[in-house]
Every structure is written in C-alpha cells, then in structure tokens.
Specification:
The complex is a heterodimer. By secondary structure, chain A is mainly beta. Chain A is built from no helices and 7 strands. In chain B, the strands form 2 sheets. In chain B, strands 1, 3, 5, 6, 8 and 9 form a 6-stranded mixed sheet that branches. A 3-stranded antiparallel sheet of chain B has the order 2-4-7, with no helix packed on it. Chain B is globular. The chains are: A mainly beta, B alpha+beta.
C-alpha cells in the first residue's frame, strides 16, 4: 500500500487552494537497473479531486511527471470544514484515496 | 479515448448523457478511469495536439507558463500554467524533446481556476508547450528551459 498523500486545502479569499504531494516512484520504464535489465514503468495515470461529490480537477499523467508528484490548483465553492478528496490510480491498478479538511490559514 | 470524449462533450454530451440516464454507465467513474494511451505515446507537439482532438493550435499571450529559465535538475522541473482565456476546459503540458511529448493533461471543470502547477522530468534542454483548450479551440504558449543535469553542462 502506498504511503498517504500530504494534502493542504486552505481558503485564499473565496477560493480553496489545494496543494498535494503524492508518494509514488513514477518510474518511466526507460531506465535500466545495475545489471542492465529494464525497470518496468510504474506511474500514476489518473488523478481525480472531488469536493462535495463534484469533480473539481481530473488529470491524466504520463511517465514524465516527477517522482513523488506535486500538484497545486484552486477551485471555487468550498468552505472551511468541508472535505477535499483525492484519488490516484496507477498503471498497475494500484490506487489510493486521501481526504483533507479545508482550513482557514493562520495569519 | 480522450479525444473522442471531448468530441462527445462538445457535441452536447448527448450519447454520454443518454447512457448515464439509462444507467449504463456512471459518467464520472467512466471518465476518471480512462487514460489516453494514444496521446501519451506521441513523439511530437503536433502529434499530441491531434491525439488530444485538435487540428492545430494558435499561440496565445493569454496562456502563461511560469517555470525556471534554467533547471539544474531535470528530474524535478516546476511548471505552472495559467490561462486567461474564457471557458478554459483543459490544460496540457508538453515537453518537446522528451521521449514522449505529453506529460500531463488536466481537465478544468467550471468553477475551478484555469491554473495548474506541478513538477515534471526533462531529458534535456527543450521547449515546453502549455496547450489550452478553451471554448473548443486550441491555444498554446511556449517556453524554453535549459537543463543542466548534474551540472554537466547543457
């Protein structure tokens, strides 16, 4: 089982700012190991972010997104205390879902 | 197929809506699981645009790429793309000289800012294209990023 995502969802004005770090090797399939064997590709292909059952961002990724992927975006309509839910699915069918509560940043 | 999906959506989502109404498929589930292999296999910018359903794209000053001019580590290059085009539906990041051109393709639903920021891998110094689909039309911005992997020049 993959490690949990680190998610920060915070209000900036009337928008929700979401920053995510996912734990994933994002192996391209182009590299070789020490004995010259190709390392099979292993990478996140789909990311879906929902808020209140509505998709606020969906992404398809290739192998060139960096290891331990970072994602940052903003959406409207969220309020403090509500949840943002993020799911990723990789090319081996492994998936992981994590949630974060929208917070008001301390100033 | 993503291109097909966009076409379906563009033509009013009729088929998808019907299928959903009939309970054959749940649209969100169907969309979330799909991966546009054809687009991620492309080897050039023009091929990628086609695989994403466009016939070409127009340069636009309303698409802005924020990224370093020089990336010391090609394994982690921060890229942010912002579109000021009304009705921005999708933002894709293309890296011209990578083995596969398309890096990431984001669907931007209404209510989400036309902005994404992520980190990508670059094999060598290359142009980065931010491809934006807005109101069914294709636009792009381009920026060159010099890569000095491990400080070995480049």
């Amino acid at each position: 089982m993959a490690d949990p995502m680190r998610i920060r969802a915070s209000m900036t004005g009337d928008k929700v700012e979401v920053k995510v770090l996912m734990a994933h090797e994002m192996e391209t399939g182009l590299r070789k190991d020490a004995s010259g064997n190709a390392i099979p590709a292993h990478f996140i292909r789909n990311v879906t972010v929902t808020h209140g059952g509505k998709t606020v961002l969906s992404a398809q990724w290739g192998t060139s997104v960096s290891r331990n992927p970072f994602l940052h975006f903003r959406f409207n309509g969220g309020k403090p205390g509500e949840k943002v839910r993020i799911t990723w699915l990789d090319n081996k069918g492994e998936k992981r879902t994590d949630e974060a509560i929208i917070v008001v940043p301390q100033t | 197929m993503d291109a097909k999906r966009r076409e379906v959506l563009k033509t009013g989502g009729g088929v998808l809506a019907l299928a959903a109404a009939a309970g054959i498929i749940k649209p969100r589930e169907a969309l979330a699981q799909e991966w546009n292999k054809a687009a991620f296999d492309t080897k050039s910018v023009s091929e990628t645009v086609k695989a994403l359903g466009g016939s070409g794209s127009t340069p636009s000053s309303s698409v802005e790429i924020t990224a370093p001019d020089i990336a010391e580590n090609g394994a982690v290059v921060p890229i942010a793309v912002e579109s000021k085009l009304p009705r921005t539906q999708a933002i894709a990041i293309l890296i011209e000289k990578n083995p596969n051109t398309l890096s990431a393709d984001f669907d931007i639903p209404a209510g989400t800012d036309p902005f994404v920021s992520t980190r990508v891998k670059m094999a060598e110094t290359s142009n980065i294209y931010a491809l934006v689909i807005a109101d069914g039309k294709y636009f792009h911005a381009v920026k060159e990023i010099k890569v000095t992997i491990g400080g070995c020049g480049g």
